[in-house]
């Protein structure tokens, strides 16, 4: 009988698990700490075409985060040996579930149940979104067994990096582009938290992929397969982009952003860039750079955990509420 | 004098970036380690970590050898918005150094060319 191992954080298993664990804690957030209701006026001022593209972009993102939290992370986690790395992946898995839910937090705030239901029907029927999910899922499902070979594991990790660092960006474009012009900025705070998380996930899973890659008997074959997968997904991204963005005239900009992020996904895997990229849309970069204060509560809390734990000595009296005062709130 | 680059790297991007430069120019590139001993002036290339911070290993290097550092560059990721490659800005302020380049991850070919060009201009 093999002994079950307990994770021992006293001894580092490698030189990066602890760094990523800490970074995940530092970035931790939940959707309910944000206030997308500040965007209601902004939403009402958007044209129906822009509203539609926004909903579809976020609907597509919801699908990818769902896949990542329900299948991607758990399947990968099962085949990674380091217990500390497993712990980091499980934290990331939980964050993916928070991401997937947070889009609904935005939808619920700005639109109606009927529109939301129609949107999810659209996601479930959209052939390009379904192709994206099915293609990535195939690589995850290859891990649905006790023993997998290193190439299967490398390709699943690689597919995960493509999802995290490349496939999300046709969707992220829309909220960043609006935010860069001062629209939907409170919701964009949520989106930017997701982007920071996905950036870390891409680096971490990319490192795991690079570790496996070094041990492959036929590395070139594996790299060729991954490059072919990227190409296949890229073709699909172009069609998806046309479907979502043609009505609002942004197709060319989004495609360039998609290529730029494909290059970054390859870098996370330790490879060279594939596409020549001239310029990243400056409005999108402005959206990323815009500092807002919508989530001050969160950023204070996240850095002050220890302090706030020290001062929180709750007593029974704390739970006796002044009813009159509560009713006023 | 042949240019010299001191670099710091945690997840391999800066390492790949400076080796692309080395392959094109033959310049010497030296990784920062805890016990590094240096005697020559060189350019520093590092990365940004923990939301806008300078890596500890780079800080320790600068505490000992700031006098040998002539310029600073940093890798980062534009997804961090205002904190993009901020390590270079912090180091530039603290040690009064010029920033040569802020680039993403392991740098594109144009980034590699740009840093080579800028270092050549410094000579
Ligand atoms: C834990 C962590 C935190 C990071 N924080 C930032 C940041 O605040 N700003 C930034 O521009 N990049 C940030 N990055 C991205 C790195 O700077 C970038 O990936 C860089 O290329 C890493 O260099 P290296 O691979 O040589 O270690 C972060 C990456 C990690 C893993």
Automatic annotation (TrEMBL), chain A:
Family annotation (InterPro entries): Ferritin-like_SF (IPR009078), RNR-like (IPR012348), RNR_NrdF-like (IPR026494), RNR_small (IPR033909), RNR_small_fam (IPR000358)
Keywords recorded for this protein, A-Z: Deoxyribonucleotide synthesis, Iron, Metal-binding, Oxidoreductase
Residues bound to Fe cation 2: 96, 164, 198, 201
Entry note: cofactor: Binds 2 iron ions per subunit.
Record: residues binding Fe cation 1: 65, 96, 99
One GO term (biological process): deoxyribonucleotide biosynthetic process
Keyword Oxidoreductase: yes
EC number: 1.17.4.1
Single GO cellular component term: ribonucleoside-diphosphate reductase complex
Cofactor(s) listed in the protein's UniProt record: Fe cation
Keyword Isomerase: no
Active site, per annotation: 103
Catalytic activity: a 2'-deoxyribonucleoside 5'-diphosphate + [thioredoxin]-disulfide + H2O = a ribonucleoside 5'-diphosphate + [thioredoxin]-dithiol
Domain of life: Bacteria
GO MF annotations in UniProt: metal ion binding; ribonucleoside-diphosphate reductase activity, thioredoxin disulfide as acceptor
Uppermost EC category: oxidoreductase
Described function: Provides the precursors necessary for DNA synthesis. Catalyzes the biosynthesis of deoxyribonucleotides from the corresponding ribonucleotides.
UniProt subunit comment: Tetramer of two alpha and two beta subunits.
Similarity comment text for this entry: Belongs to the ribonucleoside diphosphate reductase small chain family.
Name this protein carries in UniProt: Ribonucleoside-diphosphate reductase subunit beta
Organism: Pedobacter nutrimenti
UniProtKB/TrEMBL annotation, chain B:
InterPro entries, A to Z: Flavoprotein-like_sf, RNR_NrdI
UniProt cross-references to Gene3D superfamilies, sorted A to Z: 3.40.50.360
Domain of life: Bacteria
Molecular function, one GO term: FMN binding
NCBIfam families, alphabetized: nrdI (TIGR00333)
Name of the featured protein: Protein involved in ribonucleotide reduction
Species per Swiss-Prot/TrEMBL record: Pedobacter nutrimenti
């Amino acid at each position: 009988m093999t002994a079950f191992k307990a994770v021992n954080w006293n001894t580092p298993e490698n030189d990066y698990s602890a760094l990523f664990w800490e970074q995940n804690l530092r970035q931790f957030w939940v959707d309910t700490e944000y206030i997308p209701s500040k965007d209601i006026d902004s939403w009402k001022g958007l044209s129906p075409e822009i509203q539609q593209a926004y909903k579809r972009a976020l609907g597509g993102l919801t699908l990818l985060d769902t896949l990542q939290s329900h299948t991607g992370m758990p399947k990968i986690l099962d085949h990674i040996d380091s217990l500390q790395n497993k712990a980091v992946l499980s934290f990331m898995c939980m964050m993916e579930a928070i991401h997937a839910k947070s889009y609904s937090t935005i939808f619920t705030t700005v639109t109606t149940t009927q529109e939301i239901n129609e949107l999810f029907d659209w996601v479930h029927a959209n052939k390009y979104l379904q192709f994206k999910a099915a293609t990535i899922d195939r690589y995850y499902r290859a891990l649905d067994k006790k023993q997998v070979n290193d190439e299967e594991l490398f390709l699943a990790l690689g597919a995960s990096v493509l999802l995290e660092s490349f496939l999300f960006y046709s969707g992220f474009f829309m909220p960043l582009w609006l935010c860069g012009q001062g629209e939907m900025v409170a919701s964009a705070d949520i989106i930017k938290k997701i982007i920071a998380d996905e950036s870390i996930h891409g680096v971490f899973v990319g490192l795991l992929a690079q570790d496996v890659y070094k041990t492959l008997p036929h590395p070139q074959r594996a790299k060729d397969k991954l490059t072919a997968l990227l190409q296949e997904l890229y073709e699909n991204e172009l069609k998806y982009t046309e479907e979502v963005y043609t009505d609002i005239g942004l197709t060319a900009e989004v495609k360039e952003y998609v290529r730029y992020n494909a290059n970054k996904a390859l870098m996370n895997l330790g490879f060279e860039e594939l596409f020549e990229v001239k310029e990243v849309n400056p409005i999108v970069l402005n959206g990323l750079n815009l500092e807002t204060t919508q989530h001050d509560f969160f950023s204070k809390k996240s850095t002050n955990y220890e302090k706030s734990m020290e001062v929180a000595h709750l007593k029974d009296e704390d739970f006796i509420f002044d009813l009159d005062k509560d009713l006023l709130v | 004098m042949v240019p010299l680059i001191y670099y710091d790297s945690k997840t391999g991007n800066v390492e790949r970036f400076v080796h692309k430069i080395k392959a094109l120019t033959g310049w010497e590139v030296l990784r920062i380690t805890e016990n590094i001993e240096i005697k020559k002036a060189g350019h520093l290339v590092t990365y940004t970590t923990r939301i806008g911070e300078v890596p500890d290993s780079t800080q320790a290097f600068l505490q000992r050898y700031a006098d040998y550092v002539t310029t600073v560059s940093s890798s980062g990721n534009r997804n961090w918005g205002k904190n993009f490659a901020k390590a270079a800005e912090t180091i530039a302020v603290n040690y009064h150094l010029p920033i040569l380049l802020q680039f993403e991850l392991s740098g594109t070919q144009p980034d590699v060319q740009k840093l080579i060009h800028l270092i050549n201009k410094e000579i």
